Queue: 4 jobs
Job 1
Amino acid sequence: MQAALVGVTGYAGMILYQLLKNHPNVEQVHIYDHKISKNAPLSEVAPIFKNDSSVVAPYDPTTIMGADDVVFFATSSGVTSQLSAPYLEKHFPVIDLSGDMRLKTEQAYEKWYHKHSAPTAALQAATYGLAEFDSVKDATYVANPGCYATATLLGLAPLVQKHLINVKSIIVDAKSGTSGAGKKLSASTHFTEANDNLQIYKPNHHQHIPEIVQELQKWDSNVTTLQFMTTLIPVTRGIMSTIYAQVNPGVDEQTLLAAFHDTYDDQPFINFTGTDLPTIKQVVGTNNCDIGIAYNPETRFVMVDSVIDNMLKGAAGQAVQNLNALFGFSKTAGLNLQPALI
Ligand SMILES: NC(=O)C1=CN([C@@H]2O[C@H](COP(=O)(O)OP(=O)(O)OC[C@H]3O[C@@H](n4cnc5c(N)ncnc54)[C@H](OP(=O)(O)O)[C@@H]3O)[C@@H](O)[C@H]2O)C=CC1
Ligand SMILES: CC(=O)N[C@@H](CCC(=O)OP(=O)(O)O)C(=O)O
């Protein structure tokens, strides 16, 4: 197949480009960029690929829909809300890594992203693609989940789907490395601020709150809101979502362990490690989500530790999972990756 990519100059786009170049079912990756008016060498547009002889073409939806079978948008938020229309109109396959088409109403998007939304009809036409749970087989426009949302939803899924916890008691303390903020420098991601430091940010107004609630509601309609906090930590890649919730009467550690095994034992990218609590380092460089739990019988709270590489499972890797599901390729095609180890 022929794949189009928009956003190769960004962090998620460059990782996605590497994955697509090595994907056994992708013959060619065509790169398009919004800043150029005529074809340019990739080595000039994105100097990190200095030994790659590929050419980048100016962004043009008609060219993409004529030459390619699918387009990936690894673009900043606020971009695909303006660019999605021609693809939706023609039912052309899109995998969108941004948050623009994840929420289902204009009001919700504008409230949480503070940007102009795509029309509600377009939002409704997009399919949210948490790869382990949402079938995108018949979708055309896939809204790839956010990084924090992925780690948090995968950590909560067995508990909420099997009604093992009081959903009003859920508290999430999530931490991310600085690459999650993209390539643009900001005061908080500046080395001097990020290094040797921990910074809580967007308290109670992180844009992934409504996304997580929206997905949890599919599993349990009693979920209405979420206590969710985000912290910037001094690592480059990786997210740890630490989740707390009070278990329902009759639930014990064995019930919890069995629920996670039952949900995840046949999922190639989820490693349930039981009471061994995973670290960020063990997943960085892979498309895996490693999950462990600690149950406290005195407080009757379960703690779930869910870790991912934000650039892979939280962005480009999950986008490839969605590609594989959309086109019927093997679940693991292009995603046989190894962690960096140290
Ligand atoms: N980093 C992460 O861990 C995750 C990121 N995401 C989402 O994925 C998307 C990309 O993230 P990330 O790579 O970190 O962001 P970056 O800021 O690193 O890159 C953004 C990319 O979007 C391009 N872009 C900006 N404006 C336009 C436009 N008007 N038309 C076309 N392209 C445009 C940029 O090109 P240029 O700079 O050349 O203008 C750049 O290639 C974002 O929406 C982000 O929220 C999702 C999950 C995790
Ligand atoms: C560390 C850091 O700043 N992370 C970003 C990651 C979220 C993201 O990529 O947002 P969308 O995909 O929803 O646009 C943040 O917290 O906003």
Job 2
Amino acid sequence: MSTSLDSLPIIDLSLLAGDGADVAAFDQALLRATHEVGFFYLVGHGIPEDVVEHLFAEAERFFALPEADKLDVEMTRSPHFRGYTRTGGELTEGRVDWREQIDVGAERDLVTGGAAYNRLEGPNLWPDALPSLRPTLTDWSQRCSIIGMTLLRAWARALGAAEDRFDDAFDRPSTLIKLVRYPGRDGDKRQGVGAHKDPGVLTLLMIEPEKAGLQVEHGTDWIDAPPVPGAFVVNIGELMEFVTDGYLRATRHRVLSPPAGASRLSIPFFFNPSVDRAMPHIDLPAELAAQAPGVSQDPDNVISGTFGDNLLKARLRAHPDVAAIHHPDLVG
Ligand SMILES: O=C(O)CCC(=O)C(=O)O
Ligand SMILES: [Fe+2]
């Protein structure tokens, strides 16, 4: 499992349009990559190049807006953790991340009362100065959701479950897109984003062409994961590890800041269940169960099955300013 590896595996989604043998080959490659590494490149996903180019152009336009326009949609105005975070405004492992970003989640009505995680539901903050952002990100979210569901069905098959095993949990998915910009490093500070596991189920990441910086933990090494043209970098989060007793791995990753004066854009899409749902547990076939280490619970980062609980924990920790303004009762 911890044999050395120079780069992430590459998996071709278009195999799923082939015959039974192609589908089986895809499912096995997916299972192996996420058991051994937790990360892979996904090619053959069918999203046209010009759609991706348009998305990055939109991200560039957003970050180039006057600061006042970005601060109009600052996350501190949103109890639902939506909107803009300025560089240095976010923490990972208690240390400052050197990146600016806007978070856009599933557009929902407010829910008053009930479980604390209901506070994650609500409207996004859309910048008046860039009206094209909303249709662009809505389209991207729909495209990524289709790929996400396709991958979840393949995991279910490969893990020996019915292929619709995860469908119900995703009837009202919690999607989240981040547009992220990493400025060049400031002195000897290099934490673009600190080492972390994603708190949810599945992440589909697009990286600006030719921009290195992402690193993925493997055994005692950090593997560089530069962008492969047109490919997503895909990884699973803590909840997928949780429901497979650790057979599938949520892997720590980090981003090193680009050189001084340079910058790097990235666009992660997080695909997760409804806030009130848990991912169903998978009863692994015996030969897979024998290789499942169980879930190691970190006392500083306890994994709970219900998605909203897991996400709220991560959000309160990453955005202490939003927590202090809108959720003082939750952070004491
Ligand atoms: O920017 C990247 O390449 C990765 C970002 C990431 O890991 C995250 O936002 O969870
Ligand atoms: Fe991440």
Job 3
Amino acid sequence: MASGYRNGSAKGGVKVDRPLSVNSNIRSSSIKSKPSPSPYNSHGLRRSSPGSLGGSAGPVKDDSAVSGRVRVAVRLRPRNAEELVADADFADCVELQPELKRLKLRKNNWDSDTYEFDEVLTEFASQKRVYEVVAKPVVESVLDGYNGTVMAYGQTGTGKTFTLGRLGEEDTADRGIMVRSMEDILADISPETDSVSVSYLQLYMETIQDLLDPANDNIPIVEDPKTGDVSLPGATQVEIRDQQSFVELLRLGEAHRFAANTKLNTESSRSHAILMVHVKRSVKGRDSFLSSDNENTSHLVKTLKPPLLRKGKLVVVDLAGSERIDKSGSEGHTLEEAKSINLSLSALGKCINALAENSAHVPVRDSKLTRLLRDSFGGTARTSLVVTIGPSPRHRGETASTIMFGQRAMKVENMVRIKEEFDYKSLARRLDIQLDKLIAENERQQKAFEDEIGRITLDAQNRISAAERSHADALEKERLKYQRDYMESIKKLEEQWAIEKQKRSNNQNGVGTKDGCLDKTCNGEDTAVSISEEVAEVKKELENELRLKKAAEEEVNNLKSQLAQWKRSEAAGNAEIIKLRKMLEDEAHQKMKLEEEITILKSQLLQLSFEAEETRRSLDRGGPGKIFNGLDSLVTQVRHPHARDPGNGHKASIAKLFEQVGLQKILSLLESEDADVRIHAVKVVANLAAEEANQEKIVEAGGLTSLLMLLSSSEDEMIRRVAAGAIANLAMNEKNQELIMAQGGINLLSMTAADAEDPQTLRMVAGAIANLCGNDKLQTKLRGEGGIKALLGMVRCGHPDVLAQVARGIANFAKCESRASTQGAKTGKSLLIDDGALPWIVQNANNEASPIRRHIELALCHLAQHEVNAKDMISGGALWELVRISRDCSREDIRNLAHRTLTSSPTFQAELRRLRIEC
Ligand SMILES: Nc1ncnc2c1ncn2[C@@H]1O[C@H](COP(=O)(O)OP(=O)(O)OP(=O)(O)O)[C@@H](O)[C@H]1O
């Protein structure tokens, strides 16, 4: 409202309290002038009567706001019974000059102030006239799509409710503005395209209550920050279809309104009542282009525009009475009510003053009343105010204050604006109907088309069958004709033959005349010759026919065999296609399997490259043989106590020792009585075992067995540590791995692991087991003999070197398992999971030591490649780690592997979807 109020200007040039002499006869009288006509001093209404507040009407442009001053009428109530008695000896405090639209407020018997209003309604003014001048122009505006307000202000008991809310059920002449407004609205709208709905509320003690649903008693005011429009979406809105239901609603609302019996009014309203009438109208004429009868759909689409919807809102406000608390005799709760009413009315007064004076600040937020009326004063609505006054000189002060309120309100300029918007809903509805029609039409055409095709096909088929039939008939006729001709010619020939035969026998019987005999004989011979020629010819023809028939039969047979062959080859072709298709499917299947294998091989390659890198780093640092670095000097001390040969001489001296002493001898020293010698011997063996070239010889010579013996029998931890280191070196070779397992190595290593405290011993043991974990054939045995548990048991020491070996062992094991699962050699979930490795894996998946982290990341990827592990991994929290690896792992290849693994597993995918995690 603040902006709305601020926009108000005093264009009307209202001069308040500036005395203006209008009649020299009236001494000391003064006129409080009516504002000079503003260029926009009309309501801009087409239908308002000349007597309306609107005055001369001018059209309002649809799309722009125009200035519209608040119109104010004053209405005087007739003396009531009490006043007729109490004020019998006194003149009224006001004198009205309706024709001049002036009101004189008596100061005393000889002096008065004169005020001009837009309309002055005497105590004799009918309700009809009051409606027509105060409200009708506003109602018409609302019907045109503007917001409008009609409000009554005045001292309690002066006729506000009488003016606005009278239902007029006993005497229709008494109908007030609310009832008459709805009558006009319902008469003007079209029920097919327009709608009217109402809300009825009261503002009581700063809370807004629904008069149509009193339980709804704390309705918030919602202000659109863009448009400044105020609405009460929490209020009940009832659609009105007829006047009777509206009157019922008003009666219902009135029954819920707070009222009290005060000294000044037995039925005094203690709340501000607000009736909101929402009028929605479709603007005709603009949407004719949407006619669904239009056959030409392209034309329809080209001209498609949404229809316009005009949304006018009429707000009728029956304010609670302004009153002097002492006069109204309010006390207790009624006193509180009175204070609240006065507070809100005074907030309204302040806002109107600020607007009238074009003040920069309008205190609109001081009360709910002013917030509700922000559009009515200084906003976009057409506003008409009726100030009601009583005649009693005893209430002159209140009457004067009401008049001043009205005078100031006359200075408030609103910028009235039409509320018009595109009716997309209606457009959508229409388009839906249009679309349905088009679809139905399309279906109809489609059906007609299909019917036509069917008809043509049937017709063609009939014609073909008819042609085939007539062709067959013709052929048959032809055949019969030829057959008949043939039979006839045979018959003729036979007859001829019989005649000739007869003739000949006759001739033979007539022998006696020599010449005649001779002649006859001669003739008979000629005839016989010609007949036999003819017979020969017929025979020839017959043979020819038979040959042709045979040829035709052969042709038919030939065609038949061709057809059979063609059918055979078609069947063969189909079989070939099926075969090829099957091959194609097999190929696709094979390809898929190969792709899977490639993925696994890639992951294994990754593992191997990682291990190679680790080994290289380890070698750079001194490697697993680091603890043996001192051996050279130790051996030298045993064998050559004075020698000092560090660095490069180390390997050379061991090799020399190997050559000089011989392997058997060195190995036998492992069982020496002398503990020192045993220590040095085991170190020498360990050093030799670090060289791949020596490993086979050591094993062949029984070195592995001796080293394993040392693990089980030696009390000395150093010996056990070095022996374990040597075994770890030997365990790098696949053949040795099997031997170690066969000789119960895993048990011995497990026992050593369980007893040892020294991290370096544990590191050696873990390294040995980790190497064994990398052997595909030993998986089940290693696990069965407790290898995984031994490995996991060593994590208790917490030393990063030990943890790195454990992680390597787990990664090796997971890799082998993954390989076995892919090849179908293993079903069921991972033995690592069965042995409880998952929690440690998950816990260390993000270990800050990169060797541990990398091994575990790889182990997780291997485990995740098999759907059978997915559920345990999810419940164990491994999914989060996989997601982390797929996002954050610094190694792109591992990152990609994790991502591939996650996206190819349906179980992981389902869980990720459930958790709404993008991967
Ligand atoms: N113009 C009028 N002609 C006849 N009677 C009237 C007129 N105006 C008011 N009255 C009567 O005066 C009394 C008080 O009127 P009304 O209740 O409308 O006053 P109000 O201003 O609404 O009072 P409040 O503010 O206390 O609610 C009613 O009995 C009403 O019938």
Job 4
Amino acid sequence: MSACETGTDMGQGNDDNARADMVFIEGLEIEALIGIYDWERRIRQPLRFDLEMEFDNRKPAASDAIADTLDYKAVSKRLIEYVSQSGFGLVETLAERCAELVLREFDVARVRLKLSKPGAVRGARAVGVAIERRRSGAG
Ligand SMILES: Nc1nc2c(c(=O)[nH]1)N=C([C@H](O)[C@@H](O)CO)CN2
């Protein structure tokens, strides 16, 4: 196995590895007030979040310390808190606000976020949006 494959080289290959690393949250279900129709303003609907957050895996792997990583539980709890009290019309707006929150409040330079609204369209398993955002100033 090459140095690049083991992640032990300190050259360009190492930087490429760092960009590829991520902490992810898959299928986070949160109920929220969301939708553009009158009937939707009177109920709460389930939403599902999938996130990929760029994060260099090597530092926490070296220390084995939670303080050195991006705590996916902390991110999940904060999203649950925010989304549960939100009340936007469009999934686009909520997705944008959630991506901003992650970039602002956590040590994340780039986030991919998919927001699914299951059951919103008959015949479709889910509909929604997927966005990718970088912290301004981040490479
Ligand atoms: N691109 C979008 N299209 C639609 C949205 C939305 O948020 N973004 N919302 C609705 C309704 O609220 C729908 O989910 C009710 O079934 C319709 N289209």
